[in-house]
Amino acid sequence: MFGIVNLNKPSGITSRKAINRIQYLVRGAKTGHAGTLDPLAEGVLIVTVGPATRLTNRIQNWPKSYDASFRLGQSSDTEDIDGQVVEIIDAPIPTRSELESAATRLTGQIMQQPPVYSALKVKGKRAYQLAREGKQVQLEPRPITIHELRVERYQYPDIELKVTCSSGTYVRSLGRDLARAVGTEAVMTALVRTAIGHLHVADAVCLDNLDRDTIKDHLLPPLEAVRDLPLIELTGDQIKRLAHGGDIDCPQQNAPELAALTPGGELAALLTIRRAHVYGPRRNFVAAS
Fold first, then answer.
1. Are 18 and 31 in contact (CB under 8 A)?
2. Is residue 23 a contact partner of residue 212, using CB atoms and an 8 Å limit?
3. CA 20 to 30 Å from 171, out of 35, 60, 124, 278?
4. How far apart are CA 235 and CA 249, in angstroms?
């Protein structure tokens, strides 16, 4: 098997459990995923299957979109309602205008302090494991890009946000920072990932609708992962040359990277430019013979 599953992960299970289910259905083919969702979260979880696992990093770097719900005037060690929630005494009640102004200030490239309960590693150990052991965890702020942060609905204490952001963004921490910008705290109460790149939740398949007979029907072609690249069709001789690590001439091309197809339209390789109009394989998906 060689392709991508646009999975609609349900709330209440880990991403690992969802991926393990896909791995069982594809009969041991290698699997990967582009962007973990917390158990509380639901929505788009892209699972790569077979040789498409070598495209995971490309998908991981696509922008991600979310519908996120928060409750103001509360804090939590995990920054969501799955943690120990504490009510803030005499918490200020911000206006919608104040929240929208704060959202504007958090748009663009910003530095974000990751949550202590995260899968980031500190000296080889997951931060959330250290936090559960009661150890002090200090994570350095990281650069992220917020393409959109919009207040969709607001009736205190509940606020709903539309978010489009770069890979590596913690949405629960974004809500935390929005609340702190108006003098209070917030916990995330719900999260739906509505899209990764052009793959949307409306087109995603639910786990309950997948079995070993239907999984192939929901396997998207690997070309979905390279839609941003120029396409070229290879000859049989070019495929053989690339499969052995050789370069090929592409007189009409000068882009930094190309997606190369077999005569049948299947993804054969990702090519990188070596010199003007000459390309070599960066990723080969056709075995040498």
1. no
2. no
3. 124
4. 12
Task: Name the amino acid, one letter, at 55.
Answer: L
Closest listed residue to residue 255, CA positions, set 240, 271, 269? 271
CA–CA distance, 111 with 142 (Å, rounded to integer): 5
Q: Are 117 and 77 in contact (CB under 8 A)?
A: yes
**Structure-token pair, residue 64:** 């991600």
DSSP state of 204: P
pLDDT in tens, the chain (289 residues): 899 999 999 999 999 999 999 999 998 899 999 989 999 999 999 999 999 999 999 999 999 999 999 999 999 998 999 999 999 999 999 999 999 999 999 999 999 988 876 667 766 777 667 667 677 777 789 999 999 999 999 999 999 999 999 999 999 999 999 999 999 999 999 999 999 999 999 999 999 999 999 999 999 999 999 999 999 999 999 999 999 999 999 999 999 999 999 999 999 999 999 999 999 999 999 875 4
Taking Cα atoms as reference points, which of 39, 59, 25, 1 lies closest to residue 210?
Answer: 25
Residue ranges of domains in the chain, CATH in brackets? 3-62+198-224 (3.30.2350.10), 64-193 (3.30.2350.10), 229-284 (2.30.130.10)
What are 252's two structure tokens?
């009409």
Helix residue ranges per DSSP H, the chain: 15-25, 56-60, 96-105, 127-132, 171-181, 236-243
CA distance 91 to 77: 18
Please state at what angle helix 96-105 crosses helix 171-181, rounded to 10 degrees.
Answer: 120
> Which are the catalytic amino acids?
38
**Which among 194, 154, 158, 189 has a CA at the least distance from the CA of 64?**
194
